Amino acid sequence: MDKMYVAEPYKIKVVEPIRMTTRAQRQAALERAGHNTFLLDSRDVYIDLLTDSGTTAMSDRQWAGLMLGDEAYAGSRNFFHLLETVQEYYGFRYMVPTHQGRGAEHLLSRIAIKPGDYVPGNMYFTTTRAHQELAGATFRDVIIDEAHDPQADLPFKGNVDLRKFQALIEEVGAEKIPYICLAVTVNLAGGQPVSLQNIRDVSELAHRHGIRVMFDATRCVENAYLIKEREPGHAGRSVREILKEMMSYGDGCTMSGKKDCMVNIGGFLAMNDPELYQAATQLVVLYEGMPSYGGLAGRDMEAMALGIQESVDDDYIHHRIMQVRYLGDRLAAADVPIVRPVGGHAVFLDARQFLDHLPQDAFPAQMLAAQIYLQSGVRSMERGIVSAGRDREGQNHHPNLELVRLTVPRRVYTYAHMDVVADSITDLYEDRRRIPGLTMVYEPKVLRFFTARFEPLPVTQDGARQNALPA
Asked: What is the DSSP string of 58-99?
């Protein structure tokens, strides 16, 4: 490849040893885990690309901030530092800390949704939709059609289709839509960004009908960077400036601090509406803790405030995006099918195309993630039919996207680690026809991808692997 990739904008001060296991050891670990990479022990993993959630390497400033934790039960000074930072960098007036992002999703769903409501969004996310449905809402996908096509190479595949949004308003009435959930970026589409113009247009349409705009801001800094890079007129602006403008078109956000806030635990719900804030403070006491800590220690809030500041450093976020893109470029050069364009936090393998001999009901993405681990000790994550779950009638959702996510933790791995990942997946792709399907042998009722267990489909009498479920 003739591209130039920026070097790491940091020095390594502390290291954590990792070890490569044998194939036999990995086979045993995979069987213990029921072919579910979530159930693998981290000690059995060589390079861990399961998630970028809570896996960040914190900076020396953040580690120093841990020593400044004010562990008062109420009114911690770290809470006020975090609040002031959220106000400065995101622009929202009020903030309630939560133990992580799904705590914020839970609070928002409980205080904003009534049974029978509809919540539109630019593609679902697993925990977000689960909280919305548990509160009695129906999720409606209003993302552009191209987002469901892994090979559609558009700069902003996370954009909302305004016609779909308008059609939902006309169908059910604005009074049944408490807010639109606008993800920036869109995880399950491949980490795809939303353009600033689309954010403006969504805000205008929603507010014209009295509908709130609530961001899933988990990877909003990555979205701001991709606006700077891809949207005309923004190349000369700082990521921090673009981020602040993005957030100005919304009424609040849910945030998993474990991603773009660069901490190992924490999140928050932010908003501008004082009544919504009061409702959140009442509920957070029941489910999380006092409104001034929300399930977090003071030291965690301090580290998150510092992480927010560091996240908008242009050198940091440039390297972050380039490292992910490097992995994508290595795989694309070997003709491995991936979602295009490469997004901000991960490279997504197109498992439907990678294992095109398997039907979707044989869980190709789940099996591909398992086989990647068996091949090289690299842990990844299924994002397909297993993650999509079942509908209210008990039938499997069949998403167009059947993906495996290779999620790059922030400030953790080097380009050499990305080479190991790319080489092992390339080797696996060349031998992909031998890979069988799976059958699910244990399925929890909610968010099954975390703890479901699988077994390879049986061998037929002639010794060939069975690749499809029986009719």
From this structure: --HHHHHHHTT----SSS-HHHHHHHHHHHHHT--SEEEEES
